[in-house]
Design a protein that fits this description.
The complex is a heterodimer of chains A (338) and B (262).
Chain A: E1 3-18, H1 22-31, E2 34-49, E3 53-57, H2 64-71, E4 79-84, H3 93-97, E5 100-104, H4 116-126, H5 131-145, H6 160-172, E6 178-182, H7 190-207, E7 210-214, H8 218-224, E8 227-232, E9 235-241, H9 242-248, E10 252-259, H10 270-274, E11 281-286, E12 289-295, H11 301-311, E13 314-320, H12 324-332
Parallel strand pairs in A: 3-7, 3-8, 5-6, 6-7
Antiparallel strand pairs in A: 1-2, 1-4, 8-9, 10-12, 10-13, 11-12
Helix pairs in contact in A: 5-6
Chain B: H1 2-20, H2 22-49, E1 52-53, E2 56-57, H3 58-79, H4 81-89, H5 96-99, H6 105-111, H7 118-132, H8 144-168, H9 170-173, H10 177-186, H11 199-208, H12 216-224, H13 228-256
Antiparallel strand pairs in B: 1-2
Helix pairs in contact in B: 2-7, 3-7, 3-8, 3-12, 4-8, 4-10, 8-10, 8-13, 12-13
Classes of the chains: A alpha/beta (338), B mainly alpha (262).
């Protein structure tokens, strides 16, 4: 399939002035600035086929937003290039943005003082959506995002969940081919999150919209994305299907033992017994049970079970498959590398 | 044209917004009226003490003063949002929004806001001109009015361009509101005949920050009919050059824009 998004060796550097603490430091920086170059994005390449929902992950400060801002034409890359929908955002900005939608979860794009409906009327003019199409589009967005109950309210009075739905609708008004969602579920409750995920799924399925989604909520990723790109410190650390990620980390298992006597927990010392570090094995007490997480490359399931059974009385046990959240937590803490 | 249609929509939305905060609007309007009345009274006091100023009569000075307010109030009315670029929009990363829309960023920023305060200046302006013009014996030809309109356009461009330039500095420095403010204060020089200043100030407001072309030079042409090439042509050239430069700086600034963390 053809690629909708094409990113090659993208880099963004910022100049930062280093200040010593205090007013003295600030004054000194004014006259003798010490400059440092921060590589926010350090040579990232990836491609996204048409119609895919790509999860874009990374810890805070990894450079996710900087990448999104370069892809949406807001920032100028220091070097490298991106081509989306056959256009280079920085070269042909006005024509390029006509066919993309952008939502920054942290910041609204709507006019604060206007009724939501008026905001859409202004956007209709900005994007030159014909009347007929606009009417149909509003009906569709209303249905998917349930805007009816607050469409006449001023934007400033909307709740966060309503505002996010309104913002997403605003980004879709002109039927974009590519949709950039930067943390669209941040700070929302479960019901609204679900509502927003459904809307994204529906738009992707019905219109074949390519979606790039950044989020810290891994259920967003698990429910929406087939594939993820993960970055850290401006570099790509993983690019592939979620199943592949799970497969790569499939050797990390969790065993759950329910103890007959909860205080027996202190008798168990997996680290010492198997002479392993925190990264390879960890045990956690949860009420009457013990959760042991370990790397099967270092110690076998059998050894863990036999050690536990020989040390304490066990009422019940179960084995859990690796969860994406665990892998990502580890990746963020840099306990493993791919 | 598409941008004119858009502008109409922005204005109507702005008025709706104004009505949304009725008390604020009402109090603002009352305050404005008071400021303008005081300003006119103040002018009356000053000028009643000065019967003539280096060859300019009292009425002529009032005309120059009134004339200087025309481009000022038009610029104030339409491009007030540029102030926010230097003070807030860039520093807070709010500029992202404009860059993701398929219209010219400069136009979008400018169109988004109107400053009804400017009608206060318009009021003073009209009063001063209405008082002074009938008392003056100004040359009048068929081309006086078209010329006046052309001068108004380019004089406004001088104001707006200087504001665009100083606001665009914040693409590099993150904030430049105070630079704009400083520059804006310099326009006070344009209200009085240039000949009252020393050579240095004259040079600055003629060739560097050409505020003199927004008022004194064109006004003196309309008063005397002398030096049309310098007085009118100068305004047109200054407006064109500055606007070209402003667009250039703004576009360079867009590439330097660094947004803000989110």
């Amino acid at each position: 399939m053809e690629n909708m998004i094409y990113v090659e060796n993208l880099r963004k550097e910022f100049k930062k002035i280093i200040k010593e603490p205090g007013i003295k430091g600030s004054v000194k920086a004014l006259f003798k600035p010490k400059k440092e170059i921060v590589k926010a994005v350090d040579g990232i390449s990836f491609e996204v086929p048409k119609g895919e929902i790509l999860g874009f992950l990374g810890p805070n400060g990894a450079g996710k937003s900087t990448v999104i801002k370069m892809l949406t034409g807001i920032l100028m890359p220091t070097s490298g290039m991106c081509r989306i929908n056959g256009k280079i955002p920085q070269e042909d900005r006005k024509n390029y943005v006509r066919e993309i939608g952008v939502v920054f979860g942290q910041r609204t794009q709507l006019w604060w003082d206007l009724a939501l409906r008026e905001t859409y009327a202004v956007l209709k003019e900005i994007y030159q959506v014909p009347d007929e199409q606009y009417k149909k589009r509003m009906e569709f967005l209303n249905e998917v995002l349930e805007l009816d109950s607050f469409i006449t309210s001023p934007v400033r009075t909307l709740s966060l969940g309503q505002r996010m739905r309104a913002d997403i609708a605003a980004s879709l008004l002109h039927s974009p081919k590519v949709l950039f969602l930067d943390e669209p579920t941040i700070g929302l409750d479960v019901v609204v999150k679900e509502n927003i995920r459904n809307a994204i799924r529906k738009i992707n399925a019905e219109e074949g919209t390519t979606v790039i989604l950044t989020t810290h909520d891994l259920s967003d990723i698990e429910q929406l994305c087939e594939r993820i790109v993960m970055i850290d410190k401006g570099k790509k650390v993983f690019d592939g299907a979620i199943s592949e990620l799970k497969h790569n980390f499939g050797d990390i298992r969790t065993l759950n033992f329910e103890l007959v006597n909860a205080p027996d927990f202190k008798l168990l010392d997996y680290k010492r017994r198997f002479k392993l570090s925190d990264a390879d094995i960890s045990a956690e007490r949860d009420k009457g049970s013990v959760k042991v997480r370990f790397d099967t490359a270092k110690v076998s399931v059998e050894d863990i079970i036999s050690y536990t059974l020989s040390t304490v009385h066990v009422k019940d046990l179960n084995i859990k498959d690796v969860e994406i959240e665990e892998i990502i937590k580890k990746l963020y803490r840099q306990e493993v590398s791919i | 044209m598409r941008y004119i249609r858009l502008h109409r929509i922005f204005i109507s939305q702005y008025l709706k917004k104004l009505m949304e905060y009725k008390t604020d609007f009402l109090l603002g309007a009352i305050g404005l009226l008071f400021t303008q009345i005081l300003q006119i009274m103040f002018l009356g006091i000053i000028f009643s003490q000065i019967p003539a100023l280096i060859g300019w009569s009292f009425d002529e000075i009032l005309f120059i003063y009134g004339f200087s307010l025309i481009p000022k109030f038009i610029d104030h009315l339409f491009t007030d949002n540029l102030w926010m670029v230097g003070y807030r929009i860039i520093r807070k990363g709010e500029f992202d929004k404009y860059l993701t829309r398929p219209i010219n960023t400069l136009y979008h920023v400018i169109a988004e806001n109107f400053c009804v305060d400017a009608f206060g200046e318009a009021l003073t302006c009209i009063l001063l001109l209405a008082y002074s013009i009938p008392r003056l014996n100004m040359p009048f030809h068929w081309y006086t009015i078209p010329l006046w309109i052309i001068v108004t356009v380019f004089a406004t461009l001088i104001y707006t361009s200087l504001k665009i330039m100083t606001s665009a500095i914040s693409f590099w420095t993150k904030a430049s509101g105070h630079i704009t403010h400083m520059l804006y204060m310099a326009n006070d020089f344009s209200k009085y005949p240039v000949s009252i200043y020393n050579k240095f100030v004259q040079t600055v407001i003629t060739y560097i920050l050409p505020f003199a072309f927004t008022a004194y030079y064109p006004a003196s042409y309309f008063l005397t009919g002398k030096d049309p090439l310098f007085c009118i042509g100068g305004t047109v050239i200054a407006g064109t050059v500055l606007f070209t430069l402003a667009l250039f700086i703004w576009n360079r600034g867009l590439n330097a824009y660094e947004s803000a963390g989110s």
